[in-house]
Amino acid sequence: MGKLPIMSGREAVKASSEVGWRVARQTGSHVIMLNHSSPALLSSRIADAGMTVDGFLALI
């Protein structure tokens, strides 16, 4: 995987918006974005973090 180019926050928000993310709110320069995607996304995020679903549920 190649290096990411240098980009502004505005460019990153615009690119994210084009693939389904939306700006939920903004405080100063911090932008909170949401993506309402499939429930399988949580499982893949848990796996990306190197955890199991049972381990994740134990933290709740």
Order of helices and strands: HEEHH
User: What Rg is obtained from the alpha carbons, in whole angstroms?
Assistant: 15 Å
Class by alpha and beta content: alpha+beta
Helix content: 40-55%
Mean pLDDT: 87
In what range is the share of β-strand residues?
15-25%
Largest sheet: 2 strands, antiparallel
Number of strands: 2
Distance between the termini: 34 Å
Integer tally of domains: 1
Low-confidence stretches: none
Overall outline:
extended
Describe the model.
The chain has 60 residues and is of the alpha+beta class. It has one domain (9-59). It has three helices and two strands; from the N terminus they run H-E-E-H-H. A hairpin with a 2-residue loop joins strand 1 (22-27) and strand 2 (30-34). The longest helix has 10 residues, at 9-18. The model has no long low-confidence stretch (mean pLDDT 87).
In short:
By secondary structure, the chain is α+β, with helices and mostly antiparallel strands. The protein contains 3 helices and 2 strands, in the order H-E-E-H-H.
Write the layout of secondary structure elements.
Blueprint (H helix, E strand, L loop, with lengths): L8 H10 L3 E6 L2 E5 L5 H9 L4 H7 L1
Antiparallel strand pairs: 1-2
